[in-house]
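Dear support,

I submitted the protein below through the web form. The confirmation email said the job was done, but the results page showed an empty box. After a refresh the structure appeared. I'm attaching both so you can tell me whether what I see now is the final result or a partial one.
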Amino acid sequence: MESVHTGKRMSEEDVKRLLITPALERKWDRFLIAMEVCLTDGKVNIQGNIPTRGKRKKADYILYRRAHYPLAVVEAKDNAHSVSDGLQQAMQYAEMLDVPFAYSSNGSGFTEHDYLTGKERYLAMEDFPTAEELLARLASSGDRHEGLAAAEETETDRRLAQVRKQPYYSGAGVHSPRYYQSVAVNRTLDAIAAGRRRLLLVMATGTGKTYTAFQIVWRLLRSGLRHRVLYLADRNFLVDQSIQQDFAPLGSVVHKIDFSRDDRNGLTAYQVYFGLYQQLTGSDADGEEEDEDAPLTEKYKFFPPNFFDLIIVDECHRGSAKADSRWRCILEYFSSATQIGMTATPKETADQSNIRYFGEPLFIYSLNQGIEDGFLAPFRVIEVQLNISDGWRPVKDQRDYFGNPIEDRIYNERDYDTNIVLTDRIREVAERITSYLRRTDPMARTIVFCADEEAADRMRTALVNANEDMVQKYPDYVVRITGHDAVGKSKLKYFISTSAETPVIATTSKLLSTGLDCKMVKLIVLDKMINSMTEFKQIIGRGTRLRWEDGKTSFTVMDLRKVSRLFADPAWDGPVETVEPQPGPGPKPTPPKPQPGPGPNPPPPPGLRAPKPVVHRDGCKVYVTLERVSVYDSEGKLLRTMDIMDYTRETVRGGVSSLQEFIRNWPEQQKQTALRELLEANGIDLASLKKDRGMEEVDDFDFLCYVAFGQAPLTRRERAEQVRRRDFFSRYAPEARQVLQALLEQYARVGSGELAKVDVLSIDPFRRMGSITKIFSFFGGRAEYFRAVQELQSAIIGAAPSRPAV
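What the results page shows now:
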């Protein structure tokens, strides 16, 4: 039978359907071939004023050795491309999926890249290798796999086969693992089956470390390779959210250790145990820091040393990373168990090292990669500079509010809230936070990181006073959530909830800096000094959860302590992308000369530390001198500062070369539509931009002329009046003239975007003039109608705006 494709160009879909798929199915079990597999969600672009998604990475074919264990990737191209044109793309996907073979094809043959040997070769369509052939090549390279002859099997091979055949857990509300989660789980299971005892997984905050741990535990328990698991953490909420969320499918076999309540006789009846370091070492506290003075009672020795055969150490960069940590003794006591350290930020210092204990990371998935893949939210950085950011010095003999003398020296960002309290600074920071929320989203979840718990309490009060109207409506609008505040900690479950309205703003010191699953946090405020890259990454990680369907597409970091300098550190790996308008600073008032306080108080008793000086507004007036949005690349290098108007200007000028070309193109509907689509694709919402600048009465044409070319805009009504004063309508018959006059009025009300749409003729006053076909007849037909509309648009535009904008 003659093919309709003979001698003709074939589309990629035709090549796959007619040539590649049959060739693969002749050599491969069709149930182990997956097509059109989306690996990523598409990077979120926030450079405009509306978020957009980039293109997803999608593999044409993934070939599996068994479910969830991919072996090869095949990328297809149409037959206008060479056979190897898709190979680099296939290699990129192969590296993401951790598979050793990548192929490209245009239907005339295959090009193979073998990661085991580093060689590439051409294959005829009929010579594509079978799964058995690829597995044999794996075995010859030293990689063990299931399916060997019984005589060749080792104990490791049997364990590998045993664990690899176990499925991932799937059920209501549980998603299939993402590509990188599968890689992490598979590598971990293979390493455990091969006998490794200590493993380290590094996964950025928000990428599903606990979900990954659950799938590891699920498959190990089902395989019978492990029987009792201890999940260690140092915060109650980390344990509780893990039990209630990711580990919920394990139900009755899960137990949270609490020696004060547990029935010791039944304590050994479970399979998965969750425990706090502090309780296992004798302290029942759940504070922010380990209490070094608490007696070590070694409660963990209730369990025999070989009781657990798997231990998962959550956030292992903290206590367990220190060789002399009181918590390390737990891991050493249960040393016979396989131990998996999990963290987003491994700590490597002279006295703390995850790698020295757990070994080199078995798998790394960075914040940068998570944002590039579209699984994590990108973020903006607003740097706020105050008049005292570079230092403040008291005047001669100045006293604080209580009359105590203030030491004469220069105080800087390290001192504020730690060694001296400037109440006007606290007020100004609170008002800056409030101002941002009011112009964006007053109900956006916000975490304010303060110097200590006292500073967090002062900031809470200042934010309450700055948001009296919101607090009146929502009493819990602002709360303090710190390690020693029982009332505040009781609000934590509501703060991280996606359904509870409040709390909206949480002030804290360290408690919320790590591990917390803050799905909807949109603003992170840095009002404390941070020198640790580990702490910095953990804090930034509080906002990285992406909830596209719920409107959480990005978050903002507001920096008041010059912490953004850490983006320039080589250890930083997260991109900061933004273009956001910020109002310029107002007039800079002249600070009044501070006046002495009311008189000295009695000195503190010997041996007691003098209280921090408290300086009110009359002693130090604080105001914003600079607010800017910085744009960094993925390595933390500062690129430029830019606002949304600059970004829009660049986008428009990237589509047209001059003002004259822009004016010439605008009446042509196809070119106007193309420009609108370009703006939308780059995340630019013209209606929102015009509203923000009070230019809603200006047409899109004039607004873009103003933004991109600096021309003074006219309102739509002004342009419509210009057309009415010209002799434009007289050339048309009365019925056609009536239609065009109504279209001009429609333009004056809503703008040029609706003029060329046929739908406009279905509304009043056009509906009263007759059917759409009848209205076309007034002009002599459909084509003549649209020609008249284009002429009307040209008349509306007229000449270019006559003068530059002032």
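Response: this is the final, complete result; the empty box was a page-load delay. The CA atoms of residues 623 and 654 lie 39 Å apart.
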